[in-house]
Design brief:
By secondary structure, this protein is of the alpha/beta class.
């Protein structure tokens, strides 16, 4: 790309915005930002400030416009001026926290890693667990033909995206699993490690053996077992997993009954990971995962892998990714609603605690009331499974627009949070608008949502590592423009909640002004996409809008999360930090309550008092008081008039509502594309993440806080910062289903 085609924001403009716009930080906003999205600047030995993050993100996105890199574009100067003006609007919008891209964009946009791996800008992915080709992908195991269908490919895809920080939904429904061939043979797996490796002792405790001792008795010859030396790369870990899986099937090239994986080159725990960022976990998690996966496939010899086997492999992958507390992982396993083994697999407590905790499990339904009633019985017991209506997802965008036989006919599942229906290999592509905050800051909402659509559209022009993703993204150009802080907006804009009542037939009644305004904003998004697609000479987006559950991003702005009601009018929000995090002295100096975490060693728990917007309004409702019926009705409103993708929501229910859950949930069969339900826990356990408190208690706690953590942090850390610290328990979604970054 020639130098004249690069869009940069003028420092004078940035300074002017910084002086005139006040970011809408929530009570947890700056602290959450600093330890989640502020990248470390090596040359200055410090992490970014908010203005630097926003500038990096905006410049990284605006320069994805493919016309900047197209030599056939004649008037590049005019294009640069137009895009520079757009970049300035985006900077002002995001800096004020009236809207933000996804957490992934906040973390990686504008970095060299993003330029090399377009995948890094997408929060979550979906993959079907069935034999697939690697094709023209960045990772192709050395032992296979790229055009050959392999059992390992979807698992390799999952492992790769999880290690990049994304979440993965995966389908183990019968129509996928039935394509996996019989397991042809068992394999003896040996994992060797050099005694010089910094994690050798830990790896050997996990099942590896000393390499020198093993080689002394097993010389490497042509007739020796298949031997794979794992490079110290993400790709090397992926190929190690692929080798262990594929070795059990007829197409594997080595007939010997043993395989050897050499992990000696893998860096030790705690060492820097360049590129995406973070620190290494050492080889032990890989050792445990490979041995466990090999055992699962061995046990299925001469038969087929089941939906439970495939889910277990996916869960073991997720467990390996989060090991060492250096990454997060998010998975959603989608099975058939009448697959009893899948539905009940988490009842095995030993396996649940070992690895089955790693996914949220949902079932595919067709909108039949009896299916919902049966599922509700299971939800009453353990809060799972979630529900994904694939028929509704394939044939409908917004419900108000009616059925279409071509709406999204190839969709097979969702991302882990369920707000985007996806095809095989496809990612979600999100941007989040806080309409209440935007209007407070004087923005026209039509302009805001148009900017959001263009931002997300450019993400589809990144360089994607996997062929399966590249092809579906180029065809669909799917985007997901989300509203968040929706309950705040409804109360402030319309004076009440959107569900104004129910008919005698239990059908919800919606506010007509809200219908008109939400519908108009949807049309603004579609119109912006149509116009920009014409300029870029690419297909219009298959679908455009969604409601993501939000979480970390909503905390930045202090807004209610997605469509969710505030947890309580007043509450203590607990956030966990590593014990040596330099933010802790600043928080302690300000008067925040800090105590050792009762669940995890070397971790401190900090209490933040939070007041919900409109907490004292007579029309205010919280997750602890609003009925499950009204929550489902609100989800239906948004699915009808706003989201042509889906609306993600975790419906909370009270103990008193348990008996009526089957009838309540079945009332919304055929009206919601995905949902999950959990009991409202309140403060049911020690150091709960959220604990409702009284207004008096809130005011007392606030009275103990004497200063601004941001300013105190700068005073205490004028010369140094750290680059390997993150919030321990934050996620990009309120349910914890999606990753931080």
């Amino acid at each position: 790309m020639d130098e004249g085609s690069v869009i940069t924001l003028d420092q004078a403009f940035v300074d002017q915005v910084n002086q005139s716009v006040e970011p809408h930080w929530g009570p947890l906003g700056w602290v959450t930002y600093k330890r989640t999205y502020a990248r470390f600047i090596d040359a200055e030995n410090r992490s970014e400030e908010w203005s630097e993050t926003v500038q990096r993100v905006v410049e990284g996105n605006i320069n994805l416009d493919p016309r900047l890199h197209d030599d056939s574009v004649t008037d590049k100067d005019a294009l640069v001026r137009t895009l520079t003006n757009e970049a300035q609007s985006l900077y002002k919008l995001i800096y004020g926290l009236a809207a933000t891209p996804s957490g992934r964009n906040l973390w990686v946009s504008g970095t060299q890693y993003q330029r090399e791996h377009g995948d890094s800008l997408n929060n979550c992915w979906f993959i079907s667990i069935k034999p697939q080709r690697y094709g023209d992908s960045a990772i192709v195991p050395s032992y296979v033909n790229a055009q050959q269908e392999t059992v390992s490919m979807p698992f390799a895809f999952m492992f790769d995206q999880l290690m990049k920080g994304g979440g993965v939904g995966f389908s183990v429904t019968r129509n996928n699993i039935e394509h996996i061939p019989k397991v042809a043979c068992t394999r003896n797996l040996t994992i060797v490690v050099s005694s010089k490796n910094g994690s050798a002792e830990e790896a050997c405790k996990s099942g590896a053996v000393d390499r020198d001792e093993w080689l002394a008795h097993h010389p490497v010859t042509e007739d020796a077992p298949f031997y794979y030396e794992v490079p110290d790369t993400r790709e090397g870990w992926v190929e190690a997993l692929a080798t262990v899986i594929d070795a059990h099937f007829d197409y594997f090239p080595k007939a010997h009954d043993s395989i050897v994986i050499d992990i000696s080159r893998i860096r030790a725990r705690g060492e820097r990971i360049h590129g995406f960022g973070g620190t290494a976990s050492g080889a032990a998690p890989l050792v445990e995962m490979l041995l466990d996966v090999n055992s699962i496939v061995n046990a299925a010899v001469h038969g087929h892998l089941s939906s439970v086997d495939a889910t277990d492999i996916g869960n073991l992958i997720g467990k390996a990714v989060v090991a060492g507390n250096v990454r997060r992982s998010a998975e959603l396993a989608l099975g058939n609603w009448d697959d009893e083994a899948f539905v009940t697999m988490k009842q095995d407590q030993q396996k649940l605690y070992h690895h089955r905790w790693a996914s949220n499990n949902s079932v595919a339904v067709s909108g039949d009331r009896q299916e919902y009633e049966r599922i509700a019985d299971s939800i009453r017991v353990n809060g799972e499974p979630g529900v994904v209506d694939l028929d509704l997802s394939r044939h409908y965008g917004r419900l108000v627009d009616g059925r279409s036989d071509s709406s999204d006919i190839l969709a097979e599942g969702t991302n882990p949070c369920g707000e985007i229906t996806l095809e095989n290999g496809e990612p979600c592509n999100l941007f989040e608008v806080f309409p209440d905050i935007a209007q407070q800051q004087g923005w026209d909402l039509g302009t805001v949502f148009s900017l959001a659509a263009r931002f997300a559209k450019r993400v589809t022009f990144g360089h994607y590592d996997w062929e399966v993703s590249r092809k579906v993204i180029e065809r669909n150009r799917r985007i997901g423009i989300s509203m968040s802080g929706i309950q705040d907006w409804f109360l402030n804009r319309f004076g009440h909640r959107v569900v104004t009542g129910f008919t005698q037939q239990r059908e919800p009644i919606f506010d007509k002004r809200a219908i008109a305004e939400v519908d108009a904003l949807y049309r603004d998004v579609v119109q912006a996409d149509n116009a920009y697609s014409a300029q870029l000479h690419c297909p219009t987006s298959l679908k455009h809008t969604t409601v993501k559950p939000s979480g970390t991003v909503a905390k930045l702005a202090g807004a209610s999360e997605g469509m969710h009601f505030h947890y309580a009018p007043y509450l203590i929000q607990r956030i966990r930090f590593q014990e040596d995090d330099p933010l802790l002295p600043a928080l302690q100096a300000c008067g925040y309550t800090i105590e050792p975490d009762v669940y995890t060693e070397h971790t401190m728990c900090v209490e933040f008092p939070v007041e919900a917007e409109n907490a004292d309004s007579q029309r205010f409702a919280s997750a602890g008081t609003v009925s499950a019926q009204e929550q489902l009705a609100t989800q239906t409103f948004l699915q009808t008039y706003w989201a042509d993708n889906a609306v993600s929501c975790t419906i909370t229910f009270q103990e008193s509502e348990k008996p009526s859950l089957p009838s309540i949930l079945s009332d919304y069969a055929g009206l919601i594309k995905s949902t999950s339900m959990l009991p409202y826990s309140g403060a049911g356990f020690k150091q709960a993440p959220k604990e409702p408190i009284s207004k008096t208690t809130y005011e007392h706690i606030v009275g103990q806080i004497s200063d601004d953590p941001h300013q105190v942090f700068l005073r205490l850390n004028p010369q140094h910062d750290r680059d390997d610290l993150v919030l321990v328990d934050q996620s990009d979604c309120v349910s914890g289903a999606c990753p931080v970054r």
